[in-house]
Specification:
59% of the residues lie in helices and 10% in strands. With 289 residues, the protein is α/β, with parallel strands linked by helices. Helix 11 packs parallel to helix 12.
Amino acid sequence: MTKDILTHIQDNMGSFSKGQKLIARFIMDSYDKAAFMTACKLGKTVNVSESTVVRFAAELGYDGYPSMQKALQEMIRNKLTSVQRIEVSNDRMGNQDILSMVMQSDIEKIRITLDETDRDSFDQAVDAITSGKKVYILGVRSASALANFISFYFTLIFDNVVHVDTTSISEVFEQVMRIGPGDVFLGLSFPRYSKRTVRAMQYAKDRGAKVIAITDSSASPLAEIADVSLYAKSDMASFVDSLVAPLSLVNALIVACSRRNNGQLQSTFSKLEKIWDEYEVYQPSINEG
């Protein structure tokens, strides 16, 4: 569906039944809440039957209510403010056990990510990273944790890693200004997407570098730029970004790249173990002490 769902609803308002118009108006006015309601809850909210909600989704051209709900969620995720996130998550959680709900949701996101990850794209990313002259890595705001993690391990595996670590857009470009053909730019961002990451990726693309995105869906602005995109399901737990599935995907990427560089990696870690021991980098456990 080429139009966003709100435009599609507005264009078809005249053809809806009375009950469908109630649904349509609620979605138009409160799309941030409607996107996370079940068909049953949405129906009760506007005083129509669940079957009416399902037929409404079909009327819009979706193959079921879950497809319409997914379209709504993808449209709004980058638009929700932190305050709206809190309101929506409070509605979703209700009086449920927060620990169980959040962790079960994370487990489900990992399962979906595993099922939906394109193996060819994953292999292409590994090939590009392991053969790149330089590998630039950028993730800001909540995605900076992922960028720090992958940069830490890639620096142990390769000697050509540039972790773009800054809070200024001008400094980002200063650090990537020499990127060019043969280099790789790895950008990580999830809703709400970072404009700095998008701009830096576009710059790397324009300079002839191979651009890899780790993001949440093909609707992400990073995916529009990237040569290779890896998708991991993220979610919002209140104002917090749940990045468990993206971290699991990053783990897999690190391990796959390390396997390509296994011989050199063993030599590197043999040297590191001597350094760590000599300079007492690690504190012994109680049993070892």
